[in-house]
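Bug #77: duplicate submission created two jobs. Keeping one. Sequence:
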Amino acid sequence: LAAIERDLPISLLAGALRSRLSPWLDDRPDPPLGLLAATREPPEPDAFGLAFRADLSAIARGVRELEELRRDGRTAEAVTLHASISALAARVLAGLGEDAGSPLPALPDLPEEDATSKSPRGRP
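Kept job's structure:
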């Protein structure tokens, strides 16, 4: 569950960006070429995502660095970077008005048991 919650903001952001940019990308002859063509010129002042450009750039750079850390077996650094990327993705999602929360239902509060209560198997 922890891995799902850690990865969720990144996956949700990718989906949100794809759905919002899909009409624009679909008008291009080839989506990857359309993206490359779009990077040739600076964005208009009212361009979609302009407010998140630095965060999106940091996410892209972070994902590339994350791949290298994992490939080199630098697990501790990869875990820390992954958490940072997820936090950035959650911030962008919030700015887009998207929910970065867990799709899993919240667990109900369970009553406290005292030390003398028995488990279902009869053990304390």
